[in-house]
Each structure stands twice: as C-alpha cells, then as structure tokens.
Amino acid sequence: MTDEATRPFLIKQDAEGQFRLTVRDVRYNSQGYPIVTGVMQDECFATAAAAKTWARDHFNAKAGQYATK
User: Fold this and answer.
1) Domain containing 45 — which CATH number?
2) What domain count does the chain have?
3) What pLDDT, on a 0 to 100 scale, did the predictor assign at position 1?
4) What is the torsional sign of CA 17, 14, 20, 24?
5) Residue 4 falls within a domain, yes or no?
C-alpha cells in the first residue's frame, strides 16, 4: 500500500547533472502517520527516462509511481 503523496520512486538531478533514483518505503505508525525511509541507488543516469526504465526493469515500477520533488 502506497501513500499517494509519497510515491515509492524519487528521481532527482544532482549537482553534476546526473539523475539519481531513490527507492522509498512507506510504513505507518500506530497513530496512522507515515514513516518514509529511502535508499538511494548507486547508479547514475543521463536522463530521467533512463532512471524510470531502470526502475521498471529492476523494481517492477509502474507509471505514476515516480516523484521528482
């Protein structure tokens, strides 16, 4: 179950212009508040589309599961 505000894949551009992918996991505490943990992947990508393709191939990501903020 994923929270609509917290999508499981975050794609951000670093200072060198490369795109990085962070895989996020959302859990909820006993009061129902989300606890988000993220693991940045080691790979760097030239474009955001390449990062999405890699996430789709390695994590079975679907359209609409990506965030850029």
Assistant:
1) 3.10.450
2) 1
3) 46
4) negative
5) no
Which tens digit of pLDDT belongs to each residue from 4-40?
A: 567 899 999 999 999 999 999 989 999 999 999 999 9
In a domain, 2, yes or no: no
What tokens were used for 49?
């589309």
CA distance 2 to 5: 9
Domain-embedded: residue 18: yes
Q: In the prediction, which pLDDT does 4 show?
A: 55
Full domain range(s) for residue 22: 9-67
What is the rounded distance in angstroms from the CA atom of residue 31 to the CA atom of residue 29? 5
- Torsion, Cα 55 12 18 37, to 10 degrees, reads -60
C-alpha–C-alpha distance, residues 7 and 58, integer Å: 17
